[in-house]
């Protein structure tokens, strides 16, 4: 039997909902401003992408509004050579780690290049299969350890992913081999329409770490400062050979699961309003910055106007790009195409030639 008190995780919170610091942080004012600008821009991008989907200009989209502090606070704690293994909802973390906005657009448009991060930016293709990227992160961490590269890998996933076998295999392997990996769970309370309580019987996600002999931490995922500090510590531990950490970031998605979902069918209105009015991660950091005289309404207005213009121009330009060529889809499955793929590619080419011949003849 476990000791009951072993499972009493105290949730870490450094910046409270009113924008007051509960204890001292070593984060500089410049970093606080960087965090704020990232969060505000990410919210604007998310809202824009939602509108583009409604206009039929991109495919199904999984919005991340509400989860900016969790994603941005954690990604800012990484070094450039660290690896991110993201899910479909982690675009804010990806952009902080260097994914260009052009690639984000390609991904949401279903373009082949949406899965191809430029060389030198350590982000693997965005994962749709729930929890699969926990194993990918472990594999990358194992390689990093064997090659003595000093890079840490981070797997981003949701609460629903913790009910998948992959998650448990990943934690076990990472702990047995003391790998430099951080498992970053954004507990946004729902796996599509399934609430956490119907999905697991344990009190917290963080406590699952105990079974695997690794460190587990629960943090207020809407407190960007708390998330940053907790992540920094986990990354430092991983890098210095002290093994993996499971972080549970307590957060909420303000929008639907995807653009095909209607949360009114399964989420109480009062619950949504509480997270919107009292717990918004952007609002609380703004209160702190205003209190420190680092941010004004004028700064806010300028950033919003300038960034919206920049975003619109970028989107307009990206929309002029050519669509992907079907024969190209065979290139990215393996580093070298196998005979079956070569055959399939030939087949596609000859079908295309036939079609072109029909059109001209
Ligand atoms: C292995 C697998 N099973 C089912 C699905 C269908 N599916 C897509 S999203 C989702 C819910 C995931 O919830 P969670 O892990 O909490 O992440 P969130 O979407 O809330 O970020 C499910 C079941 C899938 N993509 N992969």
How would you portray this structure in words?
The chain has 361 residues and is an alpha/beta fold. It folds into 2 domains: 4-324, Thiamin diphosphate (ThDP)-binding fold, Pyr/PP domains (Rossmann fold, 3-Layer(aba) Sandwich), CATH 3.40.50; 326-361. It has 13 helices and 7 strands. The protein has helices at residues 29-54, 68-76, 91-96, 101-108, 132-146, 165-176, 196-199, 208-211, 224-239, 269-277, 281-291, 297-318, 339-360; strands spanning 83-85, 153-158, 181-187, 190-191, 194-195, 215-220, 245-250. The radius of gyration is 22 Å and the shape is globular. It starts with 28 loop residues before the first helix and ends with a helix. 39% of the residues are buried. Bound molecules: thiamine diphosphate.
Question: Which terms would index this structure?
Answer:
361 residues; alpha/beta; Rossmann fold; 2 domains; 5-stranded parallel beta sheet; two-stranded antiparallel sheet; 7 strands; 45% helix; 9% strand; binds thiamine diphosphate
Question: How are the secondary structure elements laid out?
Answer:
Blueprint: H1 29-54, H2 68-76, E1 83-85, H3 91-96, H4 101-108, H5 132-146, E2 153-158, H6 165-176, E3 181-187, E4 190-191, E5 194-195, H7 196-199, H8 208-211, E6 215-220, H9 224-239, E7 245-250, H10 269-277, H11 281-291, H12 297-318, H13 339-360
Parallel strand pairs: 1-2, 2-3, 3-7, 6-7
Antiparallel strand pairs: 4-5
């Amino acid at each position: 039997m476990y000791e009951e008190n072993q499972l009493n995780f105290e949730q870490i919170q450094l910046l409270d909902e009113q924008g007051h610091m509960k204890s001292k942080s070593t984060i500089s004012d410049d970093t606080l401003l960087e965090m704020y600008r990232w969060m505000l821009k990410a919210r604007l991008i998310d809202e824009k992408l939602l509108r583009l989907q409604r206009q039929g200009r991109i495919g199904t989209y999984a919005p991340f509004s509400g989860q900016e502090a969790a994603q941005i606070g954690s990604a800012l704690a990484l070094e450039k050579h660290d690896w991110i293994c993201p899910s479909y909802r982690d675009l804010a973390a990806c952009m902080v780690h260097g994914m260009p906005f052009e690639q984000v657009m390609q991904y949401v448009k279903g373009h082949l290049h949406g899965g191809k991060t430029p060389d030198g930016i350590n982000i693997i293709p965005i994962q749709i299969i729930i929890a699969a990227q926990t194993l990918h992160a472990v594999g990358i961490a194992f390689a990093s350890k064997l090659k003595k590269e000093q890079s840490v890998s981070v797997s981003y996933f949701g609460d629903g992913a913790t009910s998948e076998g992959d998650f448990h295999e990943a934690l076990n392997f990472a702990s047995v081999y003391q790998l430099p990996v951080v498992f970053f769970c954004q507990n946004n309370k729902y796996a599509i329409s399934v609430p956490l309580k119907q999905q697991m019987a344990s009190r917290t996600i963080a406590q699952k770490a105990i079974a695997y002999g690794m460190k587990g931490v629960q943090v207020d995922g809407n407190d960007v400062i708390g998330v940053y500090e907790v992540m920094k510590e986990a990354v430092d531990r991983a890098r210095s050979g002290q093994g993996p950490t499971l972080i549970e970031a307590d957060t909420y998605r303000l929008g639907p699961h995807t653009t095909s979902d209607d949360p009114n069918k399964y989420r109480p209105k009062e619950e949504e309003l509480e997270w919107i009015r009292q717990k918004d991660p952007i609002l609380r950091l703004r209160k702190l910055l205003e209190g420190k005289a680092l941010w004004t309404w004028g700064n806010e207005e300028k950033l919003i106007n300038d960034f919206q213009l920049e975003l619109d121009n970028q989107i307009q330009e990206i929309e002029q790009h050519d669509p992907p060529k079907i024969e190209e889809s065979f290139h990215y499955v393996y580093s070298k195409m196998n005979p079956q793929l070569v055959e399939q590619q030939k087949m596609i080419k000859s079908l295309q030639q036939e079609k072109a011949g029909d059109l001209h003849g």
